[in-house]
UniProtKB/TrEMBL annotation:
InterPro entries, sorted: Gln-synt_C, Gln_synt_N, Gln_synth/guanido_kin_cat_dom, Gln_synth_cat_dom, Gln_synth_gly_rich_site, GS_Type-3, GSIII_N
Annotated PANTHER family: GLUTAMINE SYNTHETASE, TYPE-3 GLUTAMINE SYNTHETASE
Protein name stated in the entry: Glutamine synthetase/guanido kinase
Organism encoding this protein: Mortierella polycephala
Domain GS catalytic: 199-650
């Protein structure tokens, strides 16, 4: 079967394939089981541990979770025994330490509960099969550390590494083969020397550090006497990750080598209709997609993942799933679990999930909007402005600390979202620019300006506003049958990479494919450092006084408002005018990944991260090399994939079509004359473009040769890839896309956008 006939068969299969049907749980009487009743069924949570352990052992475990004491062997053995029984009763045969190496995904190695026990008798050794799982097996395992990215921290002859159970994230079971299950143990991954080789260790460090810094500030402004117990003893980083993705037919996906190898289309033109009518956003979800979403949600609910929202996104075949907010490290685990479950369920439905930030040129790419906030152990959201933010000094101090963090370390935040895939999306029509700025909204900006200028807040009088309600307003839409509509104090700015959205900040620049761990780690670190600066200013303002007055707090707030004015921007972040304005303000505009990676080694950023104990110098240097190496390899893979497609598929198709046209011209011109032969014009148009593509392939080969000539220098490789491979691929795509337009569909070997983007 030729490839173009394979396209036809794939399209037929897509049309004729029945939708997979999955039934939600039902009670014995046939009534549906409420989601809340089976939520977390596959999770070994604190309630399960409390049932399994004696009260003293459970209390000891809680102290360990909160970092107040080490976990003793007896408690570990008791938990291991309890979780094994719980998991095996549900069909589990294996367990695995589930961790997050610096590959952008998760890793796991399965071990069976089955063990052998030897008993020596007079007759000799008797071997008995038993099921066993010890506390030591629960606490840690030993994967090969040299086989994961380490940036030089591990070599082949220094292979030992450890995965260690993260007790703050609950264990769970997931489907295994043939109706069995596997017990998953969320873990960190460290080297033999204790260096972080993963994304989670540094995230946990950052959440501990921001809690300390925030509690220090709160103790100052809450006027806690010396030696007294502070009102707030812990602050949690909360996170909600909106996950955007594309879903396409798997059979068509299998005919695109670029999608299979790189996650994005390296060639291809937009169909006549794509997203220009704005009719896909929030439209009716296609039945095949709804079936996939529903099945994935069923699995995620059982895994304790609180998925809340599903809808169509802007581009055709693009969708979004969003959860309820959770503590940050758990939210990251759940986001990675969501991506994994969605991929597996899509496979069952003969669909393919694309998490690449820009799988299709010309339509919106995908992001992972990280909604970030801070919450006390009393459940208070520290970024809630309340009814009168102008007198809520706690909120204002936290707010200016966040402004200060982005002002000081915005370039480092840009590093945290930098990758070869996200580089295609940043600054495009649907994504935030690579310039980090903060949107606060009209009301909060007026609050800060009034404090800085020592004047009353201006009244935002709008004719249609009826009354003030909860700090916002009520709108009259002049339809008597409609209820009053609550209007927020602040509009939303989708062009801002870091926007305040009511009681949280939305870090919109994070890429859809990447783990949220590193961006949130850097954000936590930057805010933690800024909180320490604000606390130092408060202590200076307090001097010898026993407590801070409101005037003292206001003075510090005013100081930081003045220091951070340049980072606040309310306008269109996509406009060229903003690029010029940002340059005048002195805000960095980091356009390439290699330039962004260098920020890890800038002394101001390095000293902040190491001083807080979130990274060591060794860990930072290794991450710098890992990011450069990953970037260079990604581009090299893309270049080689593109070269193979062009030489083995696109050019042969053009040659075949040219041959058919040439025969037609030869035959028909002898009958009608060349002047009356339209095939000749088609042939003339096709020939120069075919030559352009051949020349572009030569250029691509030269760029790859430059890369291959470099040995053992990831930094130089990354810069070479950015300088030579990207423009060579751009030139090759221009010629290939032009050739696609001119080549008859009968001869075109791979699925076009018009087939991929519509079911």
């Amino acid at each position: 079967m030729s490839l173009n006939s394979a396209r036809v068969e794939s399209l037929k299969d897509n049309i004729n394939r029945p939708t997979r049907v999955i039934s939600y749980p039902k009670k014995a009487d046939g009534k549906p089981v409420y989601t809340s009743e089976f939520f977390g069924d596959h999770v070994f949570n604190l309630q399960q541990i409390a049932k399994a352990l004696p009260k003293p052992a459970y209390a000891s475990f809680l102290k360990q979770m909160r970092g107040r004491q080490a976990l003793d062997r007896a408690t570990a053995d008791a938990i291991a025994h309890a979780v094994r029984i719980w998991a095996m009763d549900r069909g589990a045969t294996h367990f695995t330490h589930w961790f997050q190496p610096q590959t952008g995904t998760t890793a796991e190695k399965h071990d069976a509960f089955l063990s052998l026990k030897s008993t020596f008798t007079a007759a000799g050794e008797e071997v008995t099969a038993i099921d066993a799982f010890s506390g030591s097996q629960l606490l840690q395992a030993e994967p090969d550390a040299s086989s994961f990215p380490s940036g030089g921290m591990r070599t082949t002859f220094e292979a030992r590494g450890y995965t260690v159970w993260d007790t703050t994230s609950p264990m769970f079971i997931q489907d295994g083969p043939h109706g069995t299950y596997v017990l998953y143990i969320p873990s960190v991954f460290i080297s033999y020397n204790g260096d972080a080789l993963d994304e989670k260790t540094v995230l946990l460090r950052s959440t501990e550090q921001i809690s300390k810094s925030c509690c220090e500030l709160l103790s100052l402004i809450e006027s806690v006497p010396v030696g007294a117990q502070p009102r707030t003893s812990h602050v949690f980083t909360t996170l909600g990750t909106e996950q955007e993705y594309f879903l396409i037919d798997r059979s068509l996906y299998s005919l695109r080598p670029d999608l299979k190898t790189t996650g994005r289309t390296l060639i291809g033109n937009l169909p006549p209709k794509h997203q220009q009518l704005d009719d896909h956003y929030f439209g009716r979800v296609p039945s095949k997609v709804m079936a996939t979403m529903s099945e994935a949600e069923l699995e995620l609910f059982r895994l304790g993942v609180p998925v809340k929202t599903r809808h169509n996104e802007v581009a055709p075949q693009q969708f979004e799933l969003a959860p309820i907010f959770e503590e940050a490290s758990l939210a990251v685990d759940h986001n990675l679990l969501t991506m994994d479950v969605l991929s597996k369920v899509a496979h069952k439905n003969k669909l393919k999930v694309l998490y690449h930030e820009k799988p299709f040129k010309g339509v919106n790419g995908s992001g992972k909007h990280c909604n970030w906030s801070l919450s006390t152990d009393h459940g208070e959201n520290l970024l809630d402005p309340t009814v009168k933010p102008e007198t809520n000094y706690r909120f204002l101090l936290i707010l200016v600390a966040v402004l200060h963090a982005v002002q000081q370390h915005g370039a480092l935040l840009r590093t945290s979202i930098s990758s070869a895939s996200n580089e295609h999306r940043l600054g495009a029509c649907e994504a935030p620019p690579s310039i980090l700025s903060i949107f606060l909204g009209q009301h909060l900006n007026e609050v800060l300006d009034s404090i800085e200028e020592s004047r009353p807040i201006r009244n935002f009088s709008v004719p249609e506003i009826q009354t003030v309600k909860l700090g916002g307003t009520v709108l009259d839409v002049k339809v008597a049958s409609l209820p009053s509509i609550a209007r927020d104090l602040t509009d939303r700015n989708r062009t801002s990479p870091f926007a305040f959205t009511g009681n949280k900040f939305e870090f919109r620049a994070v890429g859809s494919k990447q783990s949220p761990s590193f961006p949130v780690t850097i954000l936590n670190a930057a805010v933690s450092s800024a909180l320490q600066d604000v606390s130092a200013a408060l202590r200076d303002q307090m001097g010898d006084k026993p407590f801070l007055s409101d005037a003292d707090k206001l003075a510090v707030i005013k100081k930081f408002i003045g220091m951070t004015k340049n980072i606040r921007f309310e306008g269109d972040g996509y406009s060229d005018a903003w690029v010029e304005e940002a340059e005048r303000r002195g805000l960095p505009n980091i356009r390439s990944c290699p330039e962004a990676f260098e920020q890890l080694l800038v002394p101001a950023h390095t000293s902040m991260l190491t001083k807080l104990g979130i990274f060591s110098n060794t860990e930072l240097t290794s991450r710098y090399f890992i990011m450069n190496e990953r970037y260079a390899k990604d581009l090299l893979v893309e270049a080689n994939t593109m070269r193979a497609m062009l030489a083995q598929q696109i050019l042969p198709a053009a040659f075949e079509y040219r041959g058919v046209l040439a025969k037609s011209v030869q035959l028909l011109s002898s009958i009608e004359g060349e002047a009356q032969c339209p095939e000749l014009e088609a042939l003339k148009a096709l020939t120069p473009v075919t030559k352009d593509l051949q020349a572009a392939i030569v250029g691509l080969d030269k760029a790859v040769e430059k890369m291959l000539a470099i040995h053992d220098d990831a930094v130089v490789e990354a810069k070479t890839a950015s300088e030579f491979i990207i423009p060579a691929m751009r030139d090759a795509r221009t010629a290939a896309d032009h050739l696609e337009i001119l080549t008859a569909d009968k001869f075109y070997p791979i699925p076009r956008y018009s087939e991929l983007l519509w079911f």
